[in-house]
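Sequence design from tokenized structure. All designs in this work follow the same two-part layout: the structure record, then the generated sequence. An example of the structure record is given first.
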């Protein structure tokens, strides 16, 4: 039996690679005689760029850029396709993980550093940029990225504004005359892990602002800033970024790069699996194991395990889904894609202990799955 192990990251507890290796360790210690292939996956969230670069045999380029608060840091981006495609992870320059808890101030954080990475990639001669935007610390509509690439934001008197939400409260016009001319000949693809729109109760500020440190009052200010940015953008470009799918991802950065850089917004897991040749791995598999922190009905909205399971079903393969949390009652829609759903926990646990024990639980679950598959059939 050949088992394809393809989980997403278990948020805050195990990277996709670590989860894959733990499951494999469990299978190898079980009673099942099997071969395995490790194929960690990502859907646009933290770690996506690393997996793409590793799977596509790319290289990493170090670069000094600004962090979300404008401080210099050493970041990096990947090059694949013989150096013609850059793979940039927003979290590497503008991510939450770069800030301490008391530095989460989304009215002042900026995506400028991500734009700097894009500019440096253009200096290396790339003609395509893949942007993974999960894990950002910003709710700036991508204005920092655009500013780094030469776009300026003006008030009613024509004064240049600081490119963060606090500084852009009085935005009245956008000057694109300085936009890096190389953008016109560069394909930009944004892999998105959420499909929220830009504004409103399910928008960038309301849903993701609190995760990035925004108070209730700041959520209103951020949503108001994004609404004004949308209105000015509509007047300037004719594009209604308030209505586009994925426009609320990464604090609205997806909307900004779509409008001004002509970036294409795509479902993260579908693009990842196509780019990395997941179909070839499926051709050799007898069983597929996937998972992430939680599998529920929201998983079917395009999350990583759903993408894996949907493609596996095209090949008629059984799919085992494992997660920290699964629905108490069977869901018929989930059952169309996951033949088995298993929670990895070994008993009641609070979140800190559940996270602490993720590796051990994944190893144990791998062992149990292997032993279950080894049971003789009469």
């Amino acid at each position: 039996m050949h088992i394809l192990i393809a989980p997403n990251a278990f948020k805050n507890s195990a990277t996709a690679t670590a989860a894959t290796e733990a499951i494999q360790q469990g299978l190898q210690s079980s009673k099942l005689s099997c071969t395995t292939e490790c194929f960690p996956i990502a859907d646009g969230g933290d770690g996506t760029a690393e997996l793409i670069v590793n799977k596509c045999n790319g290289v990493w380029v170090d670069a000094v850029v600004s962090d979300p608060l404008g401080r210099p840091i050493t970041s990096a981006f990947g090059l694949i396709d013989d150096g013609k495609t850059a793979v940039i992870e927003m979290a590497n320059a503008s991510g939450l993980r770069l800030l301490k808890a008391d530095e989460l101030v989304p009215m002042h954080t900026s995506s400028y550093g991500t734009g700097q990475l894009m500019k440096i990639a253009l200096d290396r001669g790339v003609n395509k940029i893949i942007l993974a935007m999960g894990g950002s610390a910003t709710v700036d509509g991508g204005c920092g990225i655009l500013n780094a690439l030469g776009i300026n934001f003006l008030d009613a008197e024509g004064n240049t504004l600081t490119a963060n939400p606090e500084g852009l409260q009085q935005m009245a016009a956008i000057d694109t005359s300085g936009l890096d001319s190389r953008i016109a000949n560069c394909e930009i693809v944004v892999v998105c892990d959420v499909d929220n729109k830009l504004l409103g109760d399910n928008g960038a500020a309301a849903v993701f602002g609190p995760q990035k440190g925004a108070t209730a009052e700041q959520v209103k200010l951020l949503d108001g800033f994004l609404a004004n940015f949308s209105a000015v953008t509509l007047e300037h470009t004719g594009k209604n970024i308030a209505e586009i799918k994925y426009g609320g991802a990464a604090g609205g950065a997806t909307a900004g790069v779509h409008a001004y850089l002509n970036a294409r917004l795509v479902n993260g897991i579908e693009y990842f699996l196509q780019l990395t040749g997941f179909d070839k791995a499926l051709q050799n598999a007898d069983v597929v194991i996937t998972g992430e922190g939680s599998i529920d009905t929201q998983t079917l909205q395009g999350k990583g395990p759903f993408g894996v399971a949907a493609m596996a079903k095209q090949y008629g393969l059984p799919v085992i889904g494992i997660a920290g949390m699964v629905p108490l009652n069977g869901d018929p829609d989930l059952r169309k894609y996951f033949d088995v759903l298993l929670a990895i926990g070994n008993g009641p646990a609070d979140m800190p202990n559940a996270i602490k024990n993720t590796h051990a639980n994944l190893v144990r679950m791998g062992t149990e799955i292997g032993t279950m598959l080894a049971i003789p059939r009469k």
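The mean pLDDT is 96. We note this feature because it recurs in several other targets discussed in the main text.
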